[in-house]
Amino acid sequence: MQHELVQASSWFTWFLYAQVARDFRKSVLAAIRESARRDTTPPFVPVALYDHEPIHDPICQVRLGSYWNIIIGYTIASGVFPPGSEEESWIPHYLEQHSKCRSTSRPHKRSCAFAFRKAGT
Q: Which of 14, 56, 76, 119 has the most CB atoms at less than 10 Å from its CB?
């Protein structure tokens, strides 16, 4: 009987966390949609949501753009964007079209772009 209570309690806890996660995801997606800068193509998704972060073009021209370039990968890797959604492609396409950052090896740049595309699938 105690084992059944533990299982029921675990299920209930999971259910509550799942609901909180769904609500949080909706809030994050709403913040991204409201904060995305659509005056560039593709839209620029800032790291600082609701903070009027300037568009970084080229990305690494300023220090904040270099920081954005490092951090934005976590947004893609989080899986927050629904698969196949328009928003899912905004960041990888922005990186491909507005990155003037130069690395010493071209394959590295290609593999990063591939990793972003793969993370969103």
A: 56
